[in-house]
Amino acid sequence: MKKFGLALGSGGSRGVAHIGFLQALEEAGIRPDYVTGCSMGSIVGACYCAGISPQDMKDAVIDLKLFDLASLNLAPIRGNGLMKMTRARKRIASLIGEKNFDELEIPFACVATDIIKGRVVVLREGNVVDSVIASSSIPGIFTPASIGKYKMLVDGGILERVPTRELRRMGADVIVAVDVLGNLMVEKEVKGTLIDTLLRCIDIMDTRTTQRKHIMRKYVNLWLEPELGSMDQYAVKDLEFAYQKGYELGKAKTEAIQLLLRD
């Protein structure tokens, strides 16, 4: 059997579709040999690689609210972000513990953006929870993370929302990418608040970067996008809907993945 690499892209609440997708793979007896993730994809990927079942992940997130995950930063300018991800870190750690990457059941890597050097950083060593928090820290909204020599890390989706290239380096023969965001450049009402404007700009830049990478799909055997419609990635709602759409996608693509994995 060929080695299977699975890339889980960023996507906020839409990223719950990753959990449904993994559930469908589990039911088909398909288990990735390597996993990469970005932002919400990094959280789901880390939990899965730590041995948390898709059903347990679903139970942990399905009723979440925003303030279960983040708290307001009382000094947002000095803190370089409107919110802190302290609560999110505690929740993730309650699931997987304070594991290092080499303690995971499945080899895993996630990506963040180093805003000092302006480049993608692949995180594969040290504390897993700290790394996925860095991968998920939307600039301006959440305080940047500091890990070792990297002093200011933010959401990996700024430069690489679906991290596929690293899977080949890890040893994958077959790469499946799940992009839960799709095209975010379609017309959308912007409320005019600072946060809304900032998030909309990030969506546009993110989509354009990903579209350029679509031309270079030499790293990917199968690029998948669940049908999530206009679901807002920044609103913590419709999580059951996202899960179900990811599950349906997994069920529909099981045979295609099995064919790719055959020797």
Q: Would you give an account of this structure?
A:
This protein is α/β, with parallel strands linked by helices. It is built from nine helices and eleven strands. The longest helix is centred in the C-terminal third of the chain and has 23 residues. It is globular and about 45 Å long. The N and C termini lie close together (5 Å).
User: What is the percent of helical residues?
Assistant: 25-40%
| Contiguous runs where pLDDT drops below 50 for at least 5 residues | none
Our count of helices gives 9
Cα-atom Rg, whole angstroms? 17 Å
List keywords for this structure.
263 residues; globular; 9 helices; alpha/beta; single chain; 11 strands; 8-stranded mixed sheet
Mind sketching the topology for me?
Blueprint lengths: L3 E5 L7 H12 L6 E5 L1 H10 L4 H8 L9 E2 L3 H4 L1 E4 L1 H11 L11 E7 L4 E5 L4 H8 L4 E3 L2 E3 L2 E6 L9 H6 L3 E5 L15 H21 L7 E3 L14 H23 L2
Parallel strand pairs: 1-2, 1-10, 2-5, 4-7, 10-11
Antiparallel strand pairs: 3-4, 5-6, 5-9, 8-9
Helix pairs in contact: 1-3, 1-9, 2-6
Short description:
The protein is α/β, with parallel strands linked by helices.
